[in-house]
Every structure is written in C-alpha cells, then in structure tokens.
Amino acid sequence: MTTSPRILGDVPRHWVGDGFFVKTMFSYSDLGHDLSPFLLFDYAAPREFPPRDVPAGVGEHPHRGFETVTIAYQGSVAHRDSSGSSGVIHPGDVQWMTAGSGVVHEEFHEREFAKRGGVVEMVQLWVNLPARDKKTAPRYQTLRATTIPTVALAAGVEARVIAGELGGARGPAQTFTPVDLWDLSFARDATATLPRAAGHTAAVFVRHGALRIADGVTVGAGELALLPHDVQRITLTADADTKALFLGGEPIREPIAGYGPFVMNTKAEIAAAFDDYEHGRMGRLPG
Question: Taking the mean position of all CA atoms in its chain, how far away is CA 184?
Fold first, then answer.
C-alpha cells in the first residue's frame, strides 16, 4: 500500500547573515537520514534589497564533511574561499562547493548588484559526503546556466538537469554519490511523470505555483513534498504556472554527527573539526 507524501512548509523564516532571509525546510538534525544524501535545504524566497554600498551577505565561516549547492534564481552572489577559489553566480547559475576536509568561505551579494539593488531568490542545499570522501580536498564548481541542459518532458513541461540524468540529458555537476537535481517548469494544467531510481530518496519543492501529486495531494508555493519510498514513478500536474525543484539521490547509510557548520560521522570528528578551524588548519581568507 502506497503511503501519502509528507508535506513540509510551515516553518519560520530567519536571517543568514544580513543577505539571505530563508526558510530551512529541513536539516541534518531532523531529516538527515530520511532525505539522505541531502542534509539541509534553505529557501530564500524573492525579497527586494535596496541599493547599498556595502554588500549584504554572510561573512567568513567554515565547513567540513559535505558540499554546499547554491542555485541562483534572482540576484547575483559572489563567493571566495580559503582554497583560493572565487566566483560570481547570476540568475540560472549554480555554485557547487565541496568543503571536504575543510574550507573557510564567505558569500555576499555581488558588488554591482548590491549597488543597483534588486530581488534575491536562492536555494542552498547541503549534500552529504560518504565517510571515504569527507577528507577530500576542497573543490569549487561554477555551473553556468548555458552549460545546464534543458529537456522537454511533456507538453508545457521542461526540466533543467543540474545533476544526474533525465530525458537523455546529463547534468554538468560532478558528484561523489548519485544525485538528481532538476529544475522544473510547468505551464498551467500540464502533466509530467518523473522516473525514480529504486531505493533513492525523492522530494519536490515548489517555488511558485502548485503541483498535484498522486492521491490528490497538492504541494503549494514554499512547500516541500517527501515522496514515499514505494513510489517509482512520480506524476505531477500543475494547477498554475509552476516552478519547482526535484531532489533525489542514493542514500548514504552511515552515522550523521553534525554541529553547526560541520557534518561528520562521529562526535570526535566534530571536535577535531572545531580544533582544526580554531587553529587555522582550514586556512583563512585573505584580508
């Protein structure tokens, strides 16, 4: 018997730094095992920022043991980290940063965007790394909108394939375990059926509009649906013009020990991460 999707959405918003006003749809402390390999999902809904000379954002902070994936829908964000990587993502671009053994970074509204002011809409995901890769060297992937393939799934339905495969297209993201990350666009009343690999996690987040899933369940704007494990094909119908994000992947069936910006397998590894950060062994940003 198929169970109904679990809908998440009634969560408070909070500031990350002074540049991102987000809803944390889930984190490793509550659904880290249920939604593995994903550890956290922050959604910064569209918000207007007035012009300012000093860009808003998030100052220097560390990560270890996972990857951060930032999808820009509106606005531009500049990044730099202690490995020497830096870059700017604009609407449609994706920043895929592997923290691995440890990195210190910052994220601010891009300077020219900040001076003009404008709307910011972003998603940030944390993707876990298996134990064998948690100490991998930091890596930074800038995935430009022009490199992300778009496929037609049905009449009125398109998908941008950021990671994984769909409709004969493969996303440009390089991942350590199988991950599917697809941006979906539906015209009103359009329907599409998405595949799902056996045993993989699957969830759908609606940014704008509304989607009907099996059994008449509707996922509204700002809501995330966790799809039951026994559903292999996912049929979605839009009740309005809709923008959504599908996330799926092979679960990492290992212990999760997390505290703040570090996610490892044991408490001892978390203590070691704090010690390494405090003694500069993750590097520092240039002044």
Answer: 14
